[in-house]
C-alpha cells in the first residue's frame, strides 16, 4: 500500500506536468544518413542511434517509435552510449568535431557539451558508476570528466600520437588508452598517473580492451597482430593470423576467448585456454565489418555485407545458428541481457532482433529525403525531388497530385521546366526523363552518358538540352526530335554544371578540374578554356546580354570573364570561404554571391566593389537569389534558416522553423511566397512580405502526405496519419488516436494555406465536426495547454519485463483525477478491450483515485497493452502503450466460424439466390484449412431469427484468447425510416425493418466481451458500410430490391458541395475501437451489394473466396485491400467495400 501511495503521488506530479505541456507530435522521420552506431539502454527498453545526418535519436525498443531527435552537431555523430543507470546519453562526433554532448535520456533535453579537446574525438564512455566520462582525441590526450559539472577532472598526457580509444576498467579505477604511436597505456583514473606502457606493436594501435575481470588486456594493431598483456604491462601472448589489420578485439565474458575482426575480410576466434588456437569465421561473398560475443555466452555474432547482408550468429565450434537480414549492414549491438541484437545500416535504418525467434522491429523513417523544391512557372504546382522520387503538389491546397518513382535526383540543377510549363525534364541517374506535369506521366527517356548525370540546362528556345556528367563530358541534345547534337569532351574530371548563353549560341561547362570551358552550342567546338581557379568551379552563368561569364569557385573567389575572348576581367575576392553561387541581376550591373563564409555579398560588376554585405547566418550559405522584382534577396543556410534582405543589405526577416540545414529556397513566380526545403525532410511555404510560415509539408511512403500549420494542426492522408504518434515530456508514447481527434484539422490547414475554395474548407470543417459527434467527444474540456483529464498508468512500468516466455502477466493499475470522480476503466491488448467496448464501471463508489491488480493472458509475439480511466464528464485519460513480447508458443489455435446466410423470407418477393451458398462456400474453405481445429455454427433461412443470432454469443464465449473468430453474414441490408441499419431475418418486415430485423449493433455485439482477440466480421449486404443519417436525407429510394441486389437501391440527390461524411471516412483514421474486431462491409452505407448469376455468389463473397483460394497465408489487412480493389473492378465502381472498424495493432493471418 505504501508503494501505491508513492506511485499515486508521482502520478499526480506527472499529471500536473502533462496539463502544462501537451504531448508533442512526432513525425515518422528517421535517419537520412548512414547509421554509425547503436546502443541499448541498460534495461533494454530504449535504443540510441548515431548517424552521419548530424543527429542521434532515441527509440522505443519494443515498438520502434521515435522518442527524441537529438540535434546540434556540426557533422557526423559516431557513437551514442547510455549511462549505467540509463538516465543520460553521451554522443560523440566524428571527424573534425571535438565536442561530445550529453543529453537527458529520460526527456531528450540537452544537458551540455564537454569542451576541452582541440581536435576530433575518437571515443567516449561512462565510468561503471556513471559519475565520470572518458574521452579520447586525435589531439593525443584522453580526458576524464565529472558528469555533474561537465568539467575536466584529469588530462591524460603521454602519448605521442592521436588516440584511437579510451576505456575505464571494470572497477573504474584505471583507464586504458590506445594510440597511433604504437603503444597502449594504463593510467590511474584518480590521479592520472601512468601505471604501465604497453610497447611491442610495430604499427598504430586500433583497439585496446580489458577482460571482464579487469586482470588482462588485449590490443589490436595495424601490424595485423593481437597481443595479450597483464595489467602490469607484461606481454603474455602474440596472436598472428589476420591478413589485414584487425579493427577491434573483445573478450568473452568468462575471459576464455578473444574475438577480433579485420574490415572487409574475416573474423577470428582465439582460444586462450589453448594458447590462442584460432577459428576463422567468414561468409561467402560477404565481408565482415563488426564482431561481438553474445553477452554471457561463447556465441559469435558478425555483421557482414555483400551477397548476404546482416547479422550471422555462430556457436563456438563454427556451427551457424541464425541469419538476420539487414540491407547494407554496417554494425551490430546487443542488449545487456543478450536476448536482443540490433543491426544498423549505411542506408539509415536499423532493426532490433529477438534472437530466440528472429522477429525484428524496424527503426526507420517513412518520409522522402527531399533535396530540392521549386514552383512551376505559373506558380500552381510545387515539385519536390529526392533520391527516390519526384512528387507534384497542388500549390493551392498542398495536396499531392502525382508521384514519379525510380528516379535519382538531387538539387535543383537536376530538374527543370519545359518552355510550355506543362512538361519537366528530370535526371534518371544516367538518363534524361521527360514528364507530363499534370499527369505525372513519363513521356520518354533519353540515354547516352556512361555515368551519372549531374546537371541539366535548357536552351532559351526550349528546343535543346545540355547535360553534364560524372563521365567528364557535356552533351547537347535536340528535344524535337530526340537526338544527340554534340558531345563536349575535354574536361579531365567530372563536369558538375553548365549553362546556355541567352542567345543560345554558346555553352559553358564547369568541372572539378578547376576550369570552365566555352563551347559553340551548334557544333560542340571548344572556343575557350577559362583557367585560373585553384579549386572546383560551380554553377557558372552568363550575364543577361551574354557578353560576360561569372565563375564561382571553392577557392574563395568568383571571376568575371569576357565571353568572346576568354579573357579574365575581374576577381571578386572578399569572401573567406568557398563561393557556391553567383548570379547577375536582370540589368547585368550587380552580382549576388553566396559563400561558405556564412555571408552573401552584392557586388558592382563594373568595379568589383561590395555594395552590400549580408551577414547574420551562422552556417554555410548554399545559395542566394533575387526576388522576381529584384527588391529583395533570399538566402538559404546550413544553420537551418533562410533569410530575406533588402538589396541595400538590410535584414528584413528570418525564416526560422526548419530543424536542420536548408537545402534550397525559392520565390514563387509572383514573389509573394517563399518555398524552402531542408535536411529535416520537410518543405515549408512562407509569406514573403511578413516572413510568417503558412504551412509545411512532407511526403510519407509512396503516396501519403502530411501538411502542418500553426497551432499544431495537420492534414494527412489516412495511411500517413497511422505513422504518427505522440510523446510525453518523459518520452512516454501516447496512443495516436486520442490527440488525432483534436489536431487533425484539414479545414484549419487549408485556411492557413489561403485556399480560395471556401466550399472545400466548409466541407472539411463539417467532416471534422461529424467525426467529433460520432466519437462522442466533449471539446469544451480542451484548453490551450491540453485536456483537463484524469491519468492512469501501470505501476512499476519501468520494472516490467520487455519479453517473457510465460503466457500471463500481472499488472498493477493506478489512476486518479484530482477534480472529478472516476466513472469507468478498461484495459486493451492489441486494441481489443478486455472488459468490452464500454469498459468496467466503478459503480457508485465516489472516488478520485483507483488502483487494482489483475492478471492478463498474452498472445505469442507482440502485445500492446493499454489502460485508461474515464471521469464523470466522460473525459478519458491518455493511453500509453506498454509493449510486451511473449517468446513462448501457443497450443493449437482454433478457429470459430459463425455464418448467417438467408435466401428465403416470409415476404417471398425479397428472396435471394446465393446468400446461403456464400456462407457454405466460406465454411467449406475454412474447414479444409483447419480440419478438426475449427468449430462451425451456421444459421440459414428460417433459422435466422434475432433470438437465434443472439444465442451464438455463448458459443463464441467459449473461445480462448489465442483463438480466431470469423463471423460472416450474407443477406439483405435494410435502412429504417430513421436510417438505422438492420440486417434481414427470416420474418423481417421489409417496409419497417425495425420490426423483427436484426439491429447491426446486435450483430457486432457478438464479438464484444469474448476471450478471442483475433476477430473478423464480414458483411455481404446492401448499406453494410456506415450510414450517415444527416447525409441520408440526400438520397431517395428508387426501387425495391431485385434478385441482383441485397437491399433497396438509393439514388443521391444533387448536392452543391463535397459530401462531409465521405470526406470523414476518406481522410480521418477510424479511432473508435469498439470491440477490437476488423469489420469489412460489402458496400458503402448508401450503396447496394450485388449478386451475379455467372459468379453464383455475392460479388463481395466471390472476391473473398478468390483471395483466400489463391493466398497461402492471407492476412486480414491484405484481405481488406484485395476486396477493396477487386469488387469495384467487378462492378464497374457500383459497389465499393468499406471498413466499419479496423484493428491496426494486429494484422493476423487467417491460417
From TrEMBL:
Chain positions of WD repeats: 28-69, 114-155, 156-197, 198-230, 239-280, 446-487, 488-529, 530-571, 572-613, 614-655, 655-696
GO biological process: proteolysis
PROSITE patterns documented for this protein: WD_REPEATS_1, WD_REPEATS_2, WD_REPEATS_REGION
Keywords: Repeat, Signal, WD repeat
InterPro entries: Caspase-like_dom_sf, Pept_C14_caspase, Quinoprotein_ADH-like_sf, WD40/YVTN_repeat-like_dom_sf, WD40_PAC1, WD40_repeat_CS, WD40_repeat_dom_sf, WD40_rpt
GO molecular function: cysteine-type endopeptidase activity
Residues in the signal sequence: 1-20
Highest taxon above the source species: Bacteria
Domain Peptidase C14 caspase: 900-1141
Polar residues bias spans: 1136-1151
SMART domains from the UniProt entry: WD40 (SM00320)
Listed name of the protein: Peptidase C14 caspase domain-containing protein
Amino acid at each position: 500500500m505504501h508503494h501505491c501511495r508513492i506511485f499515486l503521488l508521482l502520478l499526480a506530479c506527472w499529471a500536473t506536468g502533462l496539463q502544462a505541456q501537451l504531448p508533442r507530435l512526432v513525425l515518422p522521420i528517421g535517419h537520412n544518413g548512414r547509421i554509425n552506431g547503436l546502443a541499448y539502454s541498460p534495461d533494454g527498453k530504449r535504443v540510441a542511434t548515431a548517424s552521419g545526418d548530424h543527429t542521434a535519436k532515441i527509440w522505443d525498443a519494443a515498438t520502434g517509435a521515435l522518442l527524441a531527435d537529438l540535434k546540434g552537431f556540426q557533422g557526423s555523430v559516431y557513437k551514442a552510449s547510455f549511462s549505467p543507470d540509463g538516465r543520460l546519453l553521451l554522443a560523440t562526433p566524428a571527424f573534425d568535431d571535438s565536442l561530445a554532448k550529453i543529453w537527458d535520456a529520460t526527456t531528450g533535453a540537452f544537458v551540455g557539451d564537454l569542451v576541452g579537446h582541440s581536435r576530433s574525438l575518437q571515443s567516449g564512455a561512462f565510468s561503471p558508476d556513471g559519475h565520470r566520462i572518458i574521452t579520447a582525441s586525435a589531439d593525443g590526450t584522453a580526458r576524464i570528466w565529472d558528469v555533474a559539472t561537465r568539467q575536466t577532472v584529469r588530462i591524460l598526457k603521454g602519448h605521442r600520437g592521436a588516440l584511437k580509444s579510451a576505456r575505464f576498467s571494470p572497477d573504474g579505477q584505471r583507464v586504458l588508452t590506445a594510440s597511433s604511436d604504437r603503444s597502449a597505456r594504463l593510467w590511474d583514473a584518480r590521479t592520472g598517473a601512468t601505471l604501465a606502457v604497453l610497447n611491442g606493436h610495430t604499427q598504430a594501435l586500433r583497439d585496446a580492451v580489458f577482460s571482464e575481470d579487469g586482470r588482462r588486456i588485449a590490443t589490436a594493431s595495424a601490424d595485423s597482430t593481437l597481443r595479450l598483456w597483464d595489467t602490469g604491462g607484461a606481454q603474455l601472448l602474440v596472436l598472428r593470423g589476420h591478413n589485414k589489420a584487425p579493427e577491434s578485439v573483445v573478450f568473452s565474458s568468462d575471459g576464455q576467448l578473444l574475438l577480433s575482426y579485420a574490415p572487409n575480410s574475416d573474423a577470428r576466434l582465439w582460444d586462450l585456454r589453448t594458447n590462442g588456437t584460432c577459428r576463422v569465421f567468414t561468409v561467402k561473398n560477404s565481408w565482415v565489418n563488426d564482431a561481438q560475443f553474445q553477452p554471457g555466452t561463447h556465441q559469435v555474432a558478425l555483421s557482414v555485407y555483400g551477397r548476404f547482408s546482416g547479422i550471422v550468429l555462430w556457436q563456438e565450434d563454427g556451427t551457424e545458428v541464425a541469419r538476420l537480414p539487414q540491407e547494407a549492414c554496417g554494425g551490430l549491438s546487443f542488449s545487456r541481457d543478450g536476448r536482443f541484437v540490433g543491426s544498423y545500416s549505411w542506408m539509415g535504418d536499423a532493426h532490433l532482433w529477438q534472437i530466440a525467434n528472429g522477429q525484428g522491429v524496424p527503426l526507420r523513417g517513412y518520409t522522402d529525403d527531399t533535396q530540392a523544391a521549386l514552383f512551376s512557372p505559373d506558380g500552381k504546382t510545387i515539385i519536390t525531388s529526392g533520391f527516390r522520387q519526384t512528387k507534384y503538389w497542388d500549390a493551392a491546397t498542398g495536396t499531392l497530385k502525382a508521384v514519379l518513382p525510380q528516379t535519382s535526383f538531387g538539387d535543383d540543377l537536376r530538374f527543370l521546366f519545359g518552355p510550355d510549363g506543362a512538361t519537366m525534364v528530370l535526371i534518371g541517374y544516367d538518363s534524361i526523363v521527360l514528364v507530363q506535369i499534370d499527369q505525372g506521366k513519363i513521356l520518354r527517356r533519353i540515354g547516352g552518358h556512361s555515368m551519372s548525370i549531374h546537371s541539366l540546362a535548357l536552351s532559351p528556345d526550349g528546343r535543346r538540352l545540355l547535360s553534364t556528367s560524372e563521365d567528364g563530358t557535356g552533351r547537347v541534345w535536340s528535344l524535337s526530335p530526340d537526338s544527340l547534337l554534340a558531345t563536349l569532351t575535354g574536361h579531365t574530371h567530372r563536369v558538375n554544371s553548365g549553362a546556355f548563353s541567352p542567345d543560345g549560341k554558346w555553352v559553358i561547362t564547369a568541372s572539378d578540374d578547376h576550369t570552365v570551358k566555352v563551347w559553340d552550342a551548334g557544333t560542340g567546338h571548344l572556343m575557350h578554356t577559362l583557367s585560373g581557379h585553384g579549386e572546383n568551379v560551380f554553377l557558372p552563368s552568363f550575364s543577361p546580354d551574354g557578353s560576360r561569364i561569372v565563375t564561382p569557385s571553392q577557392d574563395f573567389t568568383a571571376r568575371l570573364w569576357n565571353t568572346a575572348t576568354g579573357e579574365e576581367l575581374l576577381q571578386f575576392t572578399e569572401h573567406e570561404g568557398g563561393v557556391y553561387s553567383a548570379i547577375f541581376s536582370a540589368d547585368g550591373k550587380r552580382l549576388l554571391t553566396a559563400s561558405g563564409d556564412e555571408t552573401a555579398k552584392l557586388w558592382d560588376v563594373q568595379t568589383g566593389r561590395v555594395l552590400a554585405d549580408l551577414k547574420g547566418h551562422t552556417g554555410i550559405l548554399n545559395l542566394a537569389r533575387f526576388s522576381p522584382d529584384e527588391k529583395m534577396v533570399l538566402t538559404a543556410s546550413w544553420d537551418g534558416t533562410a533569410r530575406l534582405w533588402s538589396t541595400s543589405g538590410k535584414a528584413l526577416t528570418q525564416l526560422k522553423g526548419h530543424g536542420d540545414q536548408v537545402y534550397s529556397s525559392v520565390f514563387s513566380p509572383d514573389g509573394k511566397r517563399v518555398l524552402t526545403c531542408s535536411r529535416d525532410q520537410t518543405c515549408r511555404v512562407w509569406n514573403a512580405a511578413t516572413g510568417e510560415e503558412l504551412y509545411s509539408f512532407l511526403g510519407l511512403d509512396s503516396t501519403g502526405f502530411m501538411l502542418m500549420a500553426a497551432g499544431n494542426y495537420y492534414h494527412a492522408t489516412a495511411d500517413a496519419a497511422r505513422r504518427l504518434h505522440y510523446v510525453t515530456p518523459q518520452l512516454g508514447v501516447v496512443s495516436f488516436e486520442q490527440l488525432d481527434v483534436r489536431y487533425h484539422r484539414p479545414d484549419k490547414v487549408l485556411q492557413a494555406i489561403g485556399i480560395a475554395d471556401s466550399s472545400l474548407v466548409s466541407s472539411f470543417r463539417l467532416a471534422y465536426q461529424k467525426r467529433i459527434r460520432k466519437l462522442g467527444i466533449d471539446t469544451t474540456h480542451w484548453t490551450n495547454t491540453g485536456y483537463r483529464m484524469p491519468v492512469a498508468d501501470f505501476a512499476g512500468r519501468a520494472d516490467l519485463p520487455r519479453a517473457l516466455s510465460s503466457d500471463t502477466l500481472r499488472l498493477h493499475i493506478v489512476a486518479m483525477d484530482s477534480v472529478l470522480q472516476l466513472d469507468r476503466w478498461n484495459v486493451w491488448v492489441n486494441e481489443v478491450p478486455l472488459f468490452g467496448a464500454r469498459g468496467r464501471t466503478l459503480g457508485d463508489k465516489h472516488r478520485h483515485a483507483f488502483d487494482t491488480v489483475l492478471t492478463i493472458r498474452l498472445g505469442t509475439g507482440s502485445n500492446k497493452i493499454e489502460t485508461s480511466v474515464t471521469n464523470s464528464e466522460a473525459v478519458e485519460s491518455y493511453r500509453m502503450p506498454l509493449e510486451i513480447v511473449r517468446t513462448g508458443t501457443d497450443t493449437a489455435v482454433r478457429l470459430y466460424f459463425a455464418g448467417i446466410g438467408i435466401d428465403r423470407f416470409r415476404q417471398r418477393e425479397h428472396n435471394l439466390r446465393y446468400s446461403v451458398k456464400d456462407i457454405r462456400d466460406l465454411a467449406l474453405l475454412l474447414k479444409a484449412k483447419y480440419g478438426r481445429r475449427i468449430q462451425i455454427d451456421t444459421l440459414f433461412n428460417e433459422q435466422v431469427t434475432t433470438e437465434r443470432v443472439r444465442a451464438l454469443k455463448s458459443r463464441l464465449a467459449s473461445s480462448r484468447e489465442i483463438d480466431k473468430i470469423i463471423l460472416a453474414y450474407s443477406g439483405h441490408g435494410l435502412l429504417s425510416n430513421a436510417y438505422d441499419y438492420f440486417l434481414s431475418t427470416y420474418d423481417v418486415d421489409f417496409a419497417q425493418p425495425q420490426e423483427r430485423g436484426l439491429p447491426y449493433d446486435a450483430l457486432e455485439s457478438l464479438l464484444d466481451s469474448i476471450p478471442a482477440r483475433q476477430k473478423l466480421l464480414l458483411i455481404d449486404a446492401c448499406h453494410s458500410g456506415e450510414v450517415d443519417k444527416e447525409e441520408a436525407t440526400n438520397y431517395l429510394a428508387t426501387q425495391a430490391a431485385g434478385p441482383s441486389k441485397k437491399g433497396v437501391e438509393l439514388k443521391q440527390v444533387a448536392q452543391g458541395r463535397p459530401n462531409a461524411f465521405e470526406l470523414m471516412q476518406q481522410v480521418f483514421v477510424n479511432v473508435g475501437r469498439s470491440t477490437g474486431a476488423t469489420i469489412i462491409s460489402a458496400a458503402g452505407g448508401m450503396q447496394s451489394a450485388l449478386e451475379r448469376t455467372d459468379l453464383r455468389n455475392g460479388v463481395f463473397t466471390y472476391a473473398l473466396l478468390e483471395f483466400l483460394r489463391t493466398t497461402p497465408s492471407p492476412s486480414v489487412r491484405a484481405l481488406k485491400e484485395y476486396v477493396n480493389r477487386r469488387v469495384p473492378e467487378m462492378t464497374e465502381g457500383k459497389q465499393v467495400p468499406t471498413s466499419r472498424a479496423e484493428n491496426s495493432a494486429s494484422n493476423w493471418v487467417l491460417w
